[in-house]
Amino acid sequence: MARKIFVGARIFDGECFHDDKALIVADGRVEAIAAGNDLPDGETVTLSGGVLSAGFIDAQVNGGAGRMLNDEPSVASMEIIAGGHRPYGTTSLLPTLITDTAEASIAAIEAATEAVKANRGVAGLHLEGPHLAPARKGAHLAELMRPVEGRDVKAFIQAREAIGTLLVTMAAEQVTVAQVRELAEAGVTVSIGHSDCSSEAAAERFDAGARGVTHLFNAMSQLGHRAPGLVGAAIDHPSTWCGIIADGHHVDPKALRTALRAKRGEGKLFFVTDAMSLVGSEKDSFTLNGRTVRRERGGFCSKLVLSDGTLAGSDVDMISTIRYGVTYLDLTLAEALRMATLYPARFLRLADRGHLSPGARADLVHLTDALTVIATWLAGETA
Known about the structure:
- The chain is an alpha/beta fold.
- The protein is globular, with a radius of gyration of 20 Å.
- The mean pLDDT is 97.
- The protein contains 10 helices and 24 strands.
- GO terms for molecular function: metal ion binding; N-acetylglucosamine-6-phosphate deacetylase activity.
């Protein structure tokens, strides 16, 4: 049995910290967290202080390392994107295809089916469109948006069976309650987003099995005192998960702090990056569906905008969201780490990731006390 013993750092197991303990990894899986005087034989990995945690999990990654999934929905693109985010602590992610043609969606499904098998950080696929509402299009192309049809439901179910983990973002206006129920019962993770729906329409879909809301506050009907909208429904519904973009541009920190305090259902908000190709790249612009997106430097991190000023995804990485959470959102380090590990794993039903319990994948990240990434491991091997 190939065994590694990690010593020299505080260990965060997904729930709490362990001081003066060792993480024991055998054959790519967590074996135990043990006291230093009760260790088996194995290769010792000595860490220089800081924190050892489960690797980060990102449910919404459009690009990285200079590559957008929409430009080339292939296995190679997915592996490049996953590799581009690994230096920032992300060991599992869902490559995300934003609204595009049917041909692009088919190619992304085929690529994800193969990329997941390679076990190099691609944990599934996120299809963000084309079943979105033009009224809340954001940076997506409205002319490609359309309602969900019976053939789409069948295709999503088949894709979930092939890939394992499939997340689809849909507007409540574009999918019926019955369709949501059929998809959810087949294991597809349905998230409501890019929607101008009423709170009642959203709640009906949550009750039917829609599991989450895509980038809370962004591209959706807002919270009003008589019309709570999708934001109000998402915060009020106890079983609904909400991804949030914590980059200082997409949502004011006061709104995020309010949502964190108000959300019904413990631990239901988690970090996503919604990252574009410029993360891990020195370029200052890229093309999205034929439109130029430029990087504007400044603030907590750079922001990405179209020519009319519309935000076009983010330029943030996962470790930066954790620093933002601790600095601006009044989060403890433990809760900020959970929002990048345990909570997204639970949302995506990735039972063996996001924590360091016995049997979990040894996908690890070593952080300094200043919350920068020192190293990552995939299944116990240096990544």
